[in-house]
Design goal:
Layout (H helix, E strand, L loop, with lengths): L8 H4 L1 H22 L4 H14 L6 H5 L2 H7 L5 H14 L5 H9 L1
Helix pairs in contact: 2-3, 3-6, 5-6
């Protein structure tokens, strides 16, 4: 899922770029709140949509702020939540956080 407005005048407008970044940051924050909810179905949806947001390059750094919450989801009783958390960590993993993620998985 990539936000591509093509090579149009609107895509080169710095105000539009700031607006799109602000919109994506807001979406990241809203979806990340779902992961902390007690209801398992809502937590699953939060993890699922966070994984979808990792496909947009500009959201990856914002999602990394919630890495600890996602790692905590690996200890959930619900297997589908654990699987979705693992899937999200796979998408979030890069050179800057790989050691932390791997050490948590091996612990």
């Amino acid at each position: 899922m990539e936000v591509d407005v093509g090579d149009t005048e609107a895509s080169r407008d710095p105000n539009n770029q700031r607006w799109i970044k602000s919109l994506l940051d807001g979406a990241t924050e809203v979806v990340s709140r779902f992961v902390g909810v007690r209801e398992p179905n809502i937590r699953y949806l939060g993890l699922f949509h966070m994984a979808q947001l990792t496909q947009i390059p500009s959201t990856k750094e914002g999602l990394k702020r919630h890495e600890k919450t996602v790692q905590y989801s690996l200890k959930d009783n619900d297997i589908s939540i654990r699987r979705q958390a693992l899937n999200l960590l796979y998408f979030m993993c890069d050179k800057s956080n790989s050691r932390n993620i791997i050490s948590d998985l091996l612990a």
